[in-house]
Design a protein that fits this description.
The complex is a heterodimer.
Chain A: E1 3-9, E2 12-18, H1 24-32, E3 50-53, E4 56-59, E5 72-74, H2 87-94, H3 104-117, H4 123-129, H5 141-148
Parallel strand pairs in A: 1-5
Antiparallel strand pairs in A: 1-2, 3-4, 3-5
Helix pairs in contact in A: 2-5
Chain B: E1 3-6, H1 10-18, E2 22-24, H2 30-35, E3 44-47, E4 57-59, E5 63-67, H3 72-77, H4 79-84, H5 86-94, H6 98-103, H7 106-112, H8 120-125, E6 129-134, E7 137-142, E8 147-149, E9 152-153, E10 160-167, E11 173-180, E12 191-199, E13 205-213, E14 220-221, H9 225-229, H10 236-249, H11 260-282, H12 291-295
The chains are: A alpha+beta, B alpha+beta.
The complex binds flavin-adenine dinucleotide (FAD) and FE2/S2 (inorganic) cluster (FES) (2 copies).
Chain lengths: 163, 301
Amino acid sequence: MTRTFDLEVNGVAYPLTIDPGRSLLSVLRGEIGLTGTKEGCDDCECGACMVLIDGQPVNSCSLLAAQAEGRSVTTIEGIIDGDRLSEIQAGLLDEGGVQCGFCTPGMIISATALFARNPDPTPDEIRVGLSGNLCRCTGYGRIIEALAVDGVGRADRPAESGS
Amino acid sequence: MTEFEIASSLEEALALVAEGYRPIAGGTDLVVAARTGRAPLPGRLVSIERLDELSGIEPTTEGLLIGAVVTHARLMRTQSVIDDFTALADASALVGSPSTRNVGTIGGNVMNASPAMDTGAPLVVLNAEIVLRSTRGERRVAAADFWAGPGRTVAEPDELCVALAIPNQPDGSASAYVRLEYRRAMEIAVVGAAARVDLDGRGRIIGASVALTAVAPTIVAVDGATEVLAGRSLDPATLTDIADAASRKATPISDLRASDTYRRHCVGVMARRAVEAAFGRATGDPIAVPVNRSTGIGAAR
Ligand SMILES: Cc1cc2nc3c(=O)[nH]c(=O)nc-3n(C[C@H](O)[C@H](O)[C@H](O)COP(=O)(O)OP(=O)(O)OC[C@H]3O[C@@H](n4cnc5c(N)ncnc54)[C@H](O)[C@@H]3O)c2cc1C
Ligand code: FES
Ligand code: FES
């Protein structure tokens, strides 16, 4: 039995008719066409698929899309504000916190939620905030450093490079 | 293809569960088991995580009533849980990662019945009861009697866990939960232990309870913790005795993560550290939640 409902993603209501056993990740990428959210493990281990649901980070590979009905989903595409990168996005680029970039959308989602709750986290609080996100390239050092820079996460600034 | 209903009332959820629908809360066990191929997604699901009836954290005259769909993230930040039922806050704060804790619920943890579940040992030492409801009525089962084996509980298939009822703890009592882990996140307990220690007005131990994680088919309580600890100071001999009692109770398996010998030894170490942390808290030592993070990985010092 399919289920028909609207899914609110980045402020837009997308009408869907889907098998309710499908993950939010597969619906975001396959039905809605928002491919910024990545599939790493599809197994709730890596955090590449992280999205915000009502402002809280959630692994979209392991949540049924139907469970997000009536909630507000924010993906990485909803983090950028027009042509302005968020402070977190720009900070990661500036400080070398991005290498292959596969983990980056998930990292930014987790960091966005962390800064919303705690605008001035210590490096240890940043580590806990990102503890559900694996990165195979950076060794995490540059990511933590980028987010620990004073001012990151507190105001938007113009994009310095294309997204 | 899956049939999926979002329950709009507890009554509706109970009726659907009576028809054979499987409850889904956070889905961090149910959906992940399907993704990894461990168990297919049940054909009929009823989502219960939005029910107000299951979302409360309510003080009652007997204690605290925690709704089944309260998330680990909420539990670890709720002051009354941190103050009075600290071992449970320690446990919830260790579950998975921030995102796991945002969606994973205490009811899901209890009903999933993993031998490595983190909230189980705290619920046992705090003498909690699991509140079950079906269209046939409501009953309560002591946590110590609730788990029947890996993935099995004494609940009937048509029963929903609606809440956890934790009785008020005596004055002078405090609790703690410690686990051995190889990583600081996205990890389950290699072994773990919860302890409750009750002190009299002069700071002497008059009662204690210790329960163990991941060393038996279910969470198990250590026999005679009060007899081992009552009237004694926490000197090395006392701590060795409680560690030995815990190791004796353990009947662990060997798997990829640890051998049975290692688990049996380490659960004694965890039991000792949990007792030390609970005793510290009972005497006013400010050991932050969770013990693991405030004092070092797997350590209570
Ligand atoms: C990456 C990751 C890390 C994890 N780390 C830990 C950890 O450190 N410690 C730990 O203990 N667990 C851990 N878990 C397991 C899981 O997150 C917890 O057990 C969580 O509390 C499950 O809650 P849920 O709401 O997601 O359960 P669900 O998956 O929704 O449900 C689990 C089971 O319980 C049943 N159920 C759920 N609610 C009820 C109810 N109210 N009444 C009756 N039946 C019900 C469901 O039908 C299902 O069988 C981890 C999981 C993941 C994916
Ligand atoms: S793809 Fe979801 S956690 Fe890896
Ligand atoms: S930058 Fe490559 S995985 Fe993180």
